[in-house]
DNA sequence: AGAAATATTATGTGCAGACATATTATCGTT
DNA sequence: AACGATAATATGTCTGCACATAATATTTCT
């Protein structure tokens, strides 16, 4: 290796990654131990440790005490999906964000929601439907249930101005969450709201959050046809 | 805070997260500087630094030199999607994995693939179609293009036994990748292959990878109806 | 040989101290 | 007041050292 430049953890990171990419170190290979690498690259062990730790977190390396460090055989690539507030996602693309509250009602949850959140069938809940727009066009249709037992303050929130999600982000942080993605067909009603036709393929995102096992909210987000979620890996 | 226990970076991490969750520190609030926190919690600044750094990476904190550390106002939650090899995903659920090669042909790419990968229209490429099964049922239909210019060894690979993706993972690591998800309708052909009906909603994953700007592969993965991708946040 | 106790080892983490760097705050000049 | 130079400061990182911990290797005992 060239060396000569300054050795910081980032450069160690890059150098190790380079050796993996050039297949100097192949999947399954054991790489030199931290002390040796530190000596080779002219830096402290702590610096090498930091670099290798990050590489392990990124999925390129497998590390085990005493056993050493080896190149991952099945580099599970981790796509980091940023799940921003919809408003910021739209505004971030330079589009104009719009939001409309379609319905709020206070009632007991459906059996499905009970199962999702793990709450009783007699729970006090808020059911909210809303539509998010980008440049005036329907972008995402949201159907959400919020537990009033867990987040009583929600009943005083003005959900005609700020979306339930944004309100929750600011007032009810969660400790645990679940998110899933799938493809579904638009129903008659959904199609009408999203201004498309029944049977159109819709991207569905379902999110459920808890605060220490107390269910907060469960939401079903239906994106208008053409939506693509993407990410770098 | 209680304290008394041993102070390691993990406990600092958890304590700070607790203060955020209990809204002792609210979104937008500035939190004590590292030196103060270290004093409060009875540990070295390096330890606090490690904890806060992780929390910032997780999206709970915003940190800036001189400006200090504050609780994120819009906690962008990062869903970490593990993108494993399909075989491992299926076997990991205890199902039996099956794989069938449907077609391989060596030809020039379609304009769409050219655009995706950024290669010339006269590139030498391998076009591969295959079907992945779980417990004998169609699970995912894959249509892939591999650049022979970038990965010449692919022509000697036996793709009837091992999927192109698995072969690539082992023999052609990438430095850059792009992944996107969307919902589409099954075409007649796709429906036939996945043993469903035309017009069924399919979850589509598109992946493209490069090695230093040299396009490696572009793949279109169509999952059978009912597929759900999920993750904890 | 086989099992249990013990030693060895590579990574994991903590610490104090130092300097680097990006930003903000302040001061002086016009 | 506006502007540019300068000082102050919180985080970012590196270093050398020490000890903890988990896993493996070795030895000892039956």
UniProtKB/TrEMBL annotation, chains A, B:
Keywords on record: DNA-binding, Transcription, Transcription regulation
Keyword field contains Transcription regulation: yes
UniProt-recorded Gene Ontology molecular function terms: DNA binding; DNA-binding transcription factor activity
Pfam family for this entry, one: GntR
Organism domain of life: Bacteria
Annotated HTH gntR-type domain residues: 6-74
Gene3D superfamilies: Chorismate lyase-like (3.40.1410.10), Winged helix-like DNA-binding domain superfamily/Winged helix DNA-binding domain (1.10.10.10)
Record's keyword annotation contains Lipoprotein: no
UniProt cross-references to InterPro entries, sorted A to Z: Bact_HTH_transcr_reg, Chorismate_lyase_/UTRA_dom_sf, Tscrpt_reg_HTH_GntR, UTRA, WH-like_DNA-bd_sf, WH_DNA-bd_sf
Official protein name in the record: GntR family transcriptional regulator
The species this protein was found in: Thalassospira povalilytica
């Amino acid at each position: 290796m060239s060396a000569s430049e300054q050795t910081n953890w980032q450069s160690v990171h890059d150098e190790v990654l380079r050796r993996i990419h050039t297949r100097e170190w192949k999947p399954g290979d054991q790489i030199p131990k931290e002390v040796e690498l530190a000596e080779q690259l002219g830096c402290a062990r702590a610096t090498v440790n930091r670099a290798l730790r990050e590489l392990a977190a990124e999925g390129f390396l497998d590390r085990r005490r005493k056993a050493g460090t080896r190149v991952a055989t099945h580099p599970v690539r981790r796509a980091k999906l940023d799940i921003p507030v919809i408003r910021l996602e739209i505004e971030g693309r330079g589009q104009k964000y719009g939001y409309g509250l379609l319905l709020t009602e206070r009632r007991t949850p459906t059996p499905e929601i009970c199962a999702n959140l793990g709450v009783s069938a007699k729970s006090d809940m808020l059911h909210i439907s809303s539509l998010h727009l980008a440049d005036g066009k329907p972008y995402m249709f949201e159907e959400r249930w919020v537990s009033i037992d867990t987040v009583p303050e929600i009943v005083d929130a003005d959900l005609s101005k700020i979306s339930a999600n944004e309100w929750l982000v600011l007032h009810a942080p969660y400790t645990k969450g679940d998110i899933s993605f799938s493809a579904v067909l638009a129903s008659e009603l959904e199609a009408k709201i999203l201004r498309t036709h029944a049977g159109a393929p819709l991207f569905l995102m379902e999110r459920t959050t808890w605060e220490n096992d107390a269910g907060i909210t469960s939401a079903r987000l239906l994106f208008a046809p053409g939506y693509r979620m993407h990410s770098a890996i």
